Amino acid sequence: MQHSDKLHTLNARMKAAELLDADFYLPGVFSRLGIRLGFGEATVGEVCDRSGIDASTFLTLCRIHLMQDYVPSGEEIAKLDMGVCLKYLKQSHSYYRTIGLSTLGKAISEMLAPCGEKQKKVILRFFDDYHAELEKHFAFEEEHVFPYAEALASGKEPGGDFGKVFEDDHSNIGEKIDDLRNIVMKYLPQECRDQDIQQVLLLLCFLKNDLERHTAIEERVLIPRITGDTGHGE
């Protein structure tokens, strides 16, 4: 399917296997919502029902993944199951911590094995600083933003204005990935094995794209629901 067609063809009646095949990143959406593979000829709606996931919300998350410029309408945002959205975001954090950043860190260490200690220290410190920055970002969301959104979704009136703080703090967390990628491409010594360098570059590319989709869901779904500003997509 062409990207222009994907937006219009996504629906609960399509085969889940066809949706899964539409984009390299969609398996992550399935996994983070607890939808296990091996669904045969079942439709998206059937698979979501089995997993206790609202199909419309699931499809909105998939559209944001598939279409870089897709912004849900205010009406669509108002109908979303915030429990499903928050589950996706929380499981994304878990993935970054336990798999994404860990795998990248190991690959960088292997790539730097032939380097001198000074070169290793500079690059590893850059990665460690970025890792710490992401952890700080995730911790703020988990301690303040997500509970705030959960309280709103349950009909409570949470104190504070975390939606505004979150919006102001939500900088482009992909910029330092570009910096690290440039270091890898431009300044590594010839002793580093090309296959190790390519592995690191691929992992950096995947992490950046995944984080961009994660950020898009927060900015286009979570923030509008917290702030009540759902008119931007109409």
The major pleated sheet works out as:
none
**Which structural class do you get from the secondary structure elements?**
mainly alpha
Regarding quaternary structure, how should these chains be classified? single chain
* SSE pattern, N- to C-terminal: HHHHHHHHHHH
What percentage of amino acids are in beta strands? Answer: under 5%
Instruction: Give the number of helices.
Output: 11
Shape: globular
In short:
The protein is an all-alpha fold.
Task: Note down, in words, how this protein is organized.
The protein is an all-alpha fold and 234 residues long. It has eleven helices and no strands. The radius of gyration is 20 Å and the shape is globular. The two termini are 26 Å apart.
Give a topology summary.
Layout: H1 3-9, H2 16-20, H3 26-32, H4 44-51, H5 55-66, H6 74-79, H7 82-111, H8 117-153, H9 162-169, H10 175-187, H11 194-227
Helix pairs in contact: 7-8, 7-11, 8-10, 9-11, 10-11
Tags for this entry?
mainly alpha; globular; 234 residues
